[in-house]
Amino acid sequence: MKGLVLQLAWSYSEADFRANLEQIKEWDFVVYQDVMKQKPETWCRAFYKIGNYCEDVENNSTESWNSTVSKAREKMIVPMLETIARLTMVCIAKRDVIAGGHESLCTPYVIEYLE
């Protein structure tokens, strides 16, 4: 049954989804009902939107993160995680100072974007 449910989740098209769903329905109707309760549109590949989800398509944030933690990677696991936690707390504190510095409802970026 696990294989059938995984096959359902990895369905590439709605036709594949319906065919896999029919197999589950024939195998075990109770499982079919449980699957349908979980809203397949939220977890099945056949219903995922293809393409970009926002106007920014870049990996600068990933590169920035990798650059930041590169110093920590050389350490053993616990010191590495402690270093990453410390770096993350510093980053959050800096952003808190920036966020507390403006009085408007939106950030300057959002105001500029809306204008």
Automatic annotation (TrEMBL):
Q: Which domain of life is it from?
A: Eukaryota
**Listed name of the protein:** Uncharacterized protein
